[in-house]
UniProtKB/TrEMBL annotation:
It comes from Oryzias latipes. Pfam families: Indigoidine_A, PfkB. It comes from the Eukaryota. One of its GO terms (biological process) is nucleoside phosphate metabolic process. One of its GO terms (molecular function) is pseudouridylate synthase activity. Keywords: Glycosidase, Hydrolase, Kinase, Lyase, Manganese, Metal-binding, Transferase. The keyword Protease does not apply. This is Pseudouridine-metabolizing bifunctional protein C1861.05.
Amino acid sequence: MLKKVSTLILRRGIKTSHSTWSNKDLFFKVHPSVSQALAENKPVVALESTIITHGMPYPHNLSTANEVEAIVQSEGATPATVGVIQGKIHVGLSPGDLEHLAQCRNALKVSRRDLPYVISKGLSGGTTVSATMIAAHRVGIPVFVTGGIGGVHRDGHNSLDISADLTELGRTPIAVVSAGIKSILDIGRTLEFLETQGVCVATYGMTKSFPAFFSPLSGFSSAYHVCNPSEAAGLIASSLSLGLQNGVLIAVPIPEEHAAAGQHLEEAIQAAVTEASSKCVIGKDVTPFILQKVNELTQGKSLQANLQNEIHRLTLESVFYLIQFGQTNPGSVCQSFGGVGRNIADSLSRLGEAPLFISATGCDANSDAVFNYCKHMNTSGVARLEGHNTATYCVVISESGELSFGLGDMDIHQHITENYVSQFEKQVSSAALVCLDGNIPVSTINYICSLAKKHNINVWYEPTDVERASKPFLTDAWKYLSYSSPNMAELCNMNKTLGIATPDVLPTSLSEILHVAVSLSRPLLEHLHCLVVTLGSNGVLLCGEHSADSVNLQLRKQKKKRQLCAVHYPALNVSPEETVNVSGAGDSFAGALIAGIIQGKDTDNCVRMGLLAAKMSLASPHPISPMLSVDSVDPTKLKQMNWPTPSFFWIDKGVLL
């Protein structure tokens, strides 16, 4: 269930926020499997750890944690169990970390309130719902699963003992899937408190009956219910898309066959509550005390229900089909051939170059069509894999030519492995320039960058999208890139991954956009030769080495002392009536710009080639216009062209090595 939840949320482009975590964060440690999955836009499911440290005895706690993670992994998603170990918030735990928390006798129960103290003292603990939500939101995980959330304690209207889970749901935009509210709590007052916090609560099933963790029935109702995966999808999509800055709670009842006898459990709970009161157990110690006592009174039946709750929510059928249509929509349909790497290789091939295109496809009808269309390209580096699907992207384009939404089957990209690409090491090592797109695995990017370091190769990184932009910056691989062509959002994510502060909101005026783009480019130019920041309708900003009153775009032979500058080129005018499709303009620009660089043209002519190619793409239903040719983008043959005047800026007067 959660794999499909996360996958479809990612495909829709719905996020809680852009991740504010970086690999230099002093307080967070993100497991490599989690950071790689996030960078590759793969589904990640957050899991809490108080079930390990305080919810079950050893070894039941460890076996349950392992089983839950195994279920997540078996469905193709990456589990991200959150815990605090020796003063660091871990997002994603190794087997050793899980074992440590499962056996740690002095582990604390860590909520929002406790995080500063536990971190400052270097202590360990299991994260509650609130602390797990904070960590998940911080690193960009939008879906979190837990057993039962905290709530208003019995007699809470007098004691004011109210779980921080509730206020966290009111201020952190995460989709929380749970078995409801713990049956030891005052469920009615908890639901009222959630309403006050603005949290949308819905039961997953045919009724609004709100589950009581151990039992499908609590005697209370949710405000809403979602009957099927599509309805659940719509609810979560709306909640995360509206920018309301609060979570949504989906309550999933435990299956009837695993629910403990309601009356028997209720009697045990009442007895446990009475004993807790008589022994003056208060605050956050109440829940684990009552759970343990209920487990004793029911001879383990509540523990079994707890286990089943943890497992059931992860084995439900698919939940969230984020796009649902109730009718056929009229429109025109055409097939074109895309993919960032393919587009750039296509562009270069039409402009007189003969790049080797290294990729992978399935062995299916779609790959037959691709190879037939790409006969003008050198596709000898493309593997055709039996039993796999060729990457396919279904996109709906609005009347204005803008992307409305897309659905992609891109798993084949994970087979463009380091091992496969190493077959072409000789060609890569001797190339004038190697272009990488962000769809390939992190390990393959790192491998190419290691060759760049060894053989002094110029490498161009095309980020593809905001999340994939961070891939080379997860390690020192980025230091061996020569060029990159991010947009503003991608440039921000590159900086964030390096631990560099970025604006919360991107500016809208051109002068402010250029100022921010220059500021964010400066740290990357410590190692990169040139940044080509694409600004959409505002044109393009080149940042790099100063040469002849412009930015030196020519291939770098070795790193040297240099002064930095930036040049802004406005976009060419394209009317709305001329715009057919915007999806390939950036790739067309990059391909033509690279062609100009390889051909040794000056900076103005390189950029003008790119702008002309982008304009042709906008007017074509294909990402790369079939009409693209050397003559069509030759600025010297357009004598009547009124080129916009570029603007020059010094980045700083310092000299970089």
